[in-house]
Backbone:
């Protein structure tokens, strides 16, 4: 399982661990990933996702999973979440018509 947020695309970063003598060795900065279950109002079902804590705060701030997906760019989303976004947009269009 890759260290990648399914909603924001946040992934691991590489940096240096710097000792007191200023020696530099490689290290990884891993995102704070959580396994969460979010509810989609448009689809009427819950979705299990592996997202970062920052993404969870953003979803809450924007007013839920559906609102987040409508605003999100497709390039940042994982293929599974892109399909979910397509379903949400289809349901919203059908409800509006």
Residues:
């Amino acid at each position: 399982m890759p260290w990648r947020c399914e909603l924001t695309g946040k992934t691991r970063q590489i940096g240096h661990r710097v000792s007191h003598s200023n020696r530099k060795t490689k290290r990884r900065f891993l995102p704070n990933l959580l396994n969460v279950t979010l509810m989609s109002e448009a689809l009427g079902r819950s979705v299990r996702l592996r997202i970062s804590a920052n993404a969870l705060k953003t979803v809450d701030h924007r007013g839920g999973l559906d609102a987040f997906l409508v605003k999100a760019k497709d390039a940042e989303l994982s293929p599974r979440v892109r399909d979910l976004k397509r379903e949400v947009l289809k349901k919203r269009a059908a409800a509006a018509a």
